[in-house]
Design goal:
Elements lengths: L2 H14 L4 H8 L3 H8 L7 H11 L13 H7 L4 E3 L11 E2 L22 E3 L17 E3 L17 E6 L9 E3 L2 E5 L4 E3 L2 E3 L2 E3 L7 E3 L2 E3 L2 E3 L12 E3 L2 E3 L12 E3 L2 E3 L21 E2 L1 H8 L10 E2 L1
Parallel strand pairs: 3-4, 4-5, 5-7, 6-9, 7-10, 8-11, 9-12, 10-13, 12-14, 13-15, 14-16, 15-17, 16-18, 18-19
Antiparallel strand pairs: 1-2
Helix pairs in contact: 2-3
């Protein structure tokens, strides 16, 4: 496809609808500047956007080309890049393309069981969406409203949640491997989840619930964990780096190779908050025990050393 020809066709259909660039952009959840670039031939919509354009402008998809292209041609011309082809030639059902859902208005939508590798959700509205048992490997959620979303059983390997609101979201039995979480997660629930090499950065987890979880190679950096109950759960190779731990419970938990770096110097009154951390009945290795003992304010009187 010739981008200038496509741009002229978009502009013509838009004007016939008595629609401004700004109005068209609002329907597609993009900027008016992006529409301007299309119409000047500086860029082109992707294949999924062509479908939406045809619907909004009241034209057939064939309108955008003198000769109707094949499905494969449309995909190539739209600039889609295959994420994987399964090693098969011509097997369209085995092909995964990059899906862009930026600025998508999809609250309470059903994504259950979908396979979406390296998908992008930026400034999207996904409140209450159902991602249960979906394979979202490598996908990114940026500045997105995902409050009350359901990620139960989802594969979130190498996903990135950046400045995303996950208040009251659910992560029951989710696969969290090399996942990065920089988000608001008040009231989020993690049940029977395994977190491996996960990074939680400046994450607000007040009122979050963790039940029967294991933490391996996890970093909590500058997180708000006040009031969290980690009782009975397993921590191996975990760092709590300058995170708020007031009233956190590790009662009955197992801690191996776990480090605690406090936010301020021990002369600061705020460090008296360390006294509120509960380790009663916890089991920990000798180095973790000695490091905590060195803080001089943590009660380790009912801890078992292994």
């Amino acid at each position: 496809m010739d981008s200038k020809v496509i741009g002229e066709k978009i502009a013509k259909a838009r004007k016939e609808k008595n629609m401004s660039q700004a109005q068209l952009a609002q329907h597609i959840f993009i900027s008016p500047q992006a529409v301007g670039k299309w119409e000047r031939g500086e860029s082109m919509p992707d294949i999924t956007t062509f479908d939406r354009l045809a619907e909004i402008l009241g034209v057939d998809l064939n309108y955008f080309s003198e000769n109707a292209p094949s499905a494969a041609d449309k995909t190539t011309n739209a600039g889609e890049i295959p994420a994987h082809s399964g090693g098969k030639v011509g097997g369209s059902q085995d092909r995964q393309v990059l899906i862009n859902l930026n600025a998508a208005d999809l609250p309470e939508s059903d994504f259950a069981g979908v396979v979406l590798h390296k998908g992008t959700f930026k400034a999207s509205s996904l409140r209450g969406a159902d991602f249960s048992n979906a394979d979202l490997t490598g996908s990114s959620f940026e500045a997105t409203d995902a409050r009350e979303a359901n990620f139960d059983g989802a594969d979130l390997t190498e996903c990135n949640f950046s400045v995303t609101d996950l208040t009251n979201a659910s992560f029951g039995k989710s696969v969290l491997v090399r996942t990065v979480l920089n988000m608001s997660g008040q009231g989020a629930k993690f049940a029977d989840a395994k977190l491996v090499d996960v990074k939680l950065i400046k994450t607000d987890l007040r009122k979050a619930i963790f039940e029967n979880c294991t933490f391996t190679g996890v970093d909590f950096s500058y997180c708000d964990l006040r009031g969290i109950d980690f009782g009975g759960q397993t921590f191996d190779g975990v760092r709590f780096d300058k995170s708020a731990l007031n009233d956190v419970s590790f009662q009955g938990a197992t801690l191996r190779n776990v480090s605690f770096t406090v936010p301020f110097s021990l002369t600061n009154k705020s460090h008296l908050a360390l006294k509120t951390i509960r380790f009663d009945g916890a089991t920990m290795d000798k180095l973790t025990y000695l490091a905590l003992k060195g803080l001089r304010v943590v009660d380790l009187s009912n801890v078992t050393i292994i």
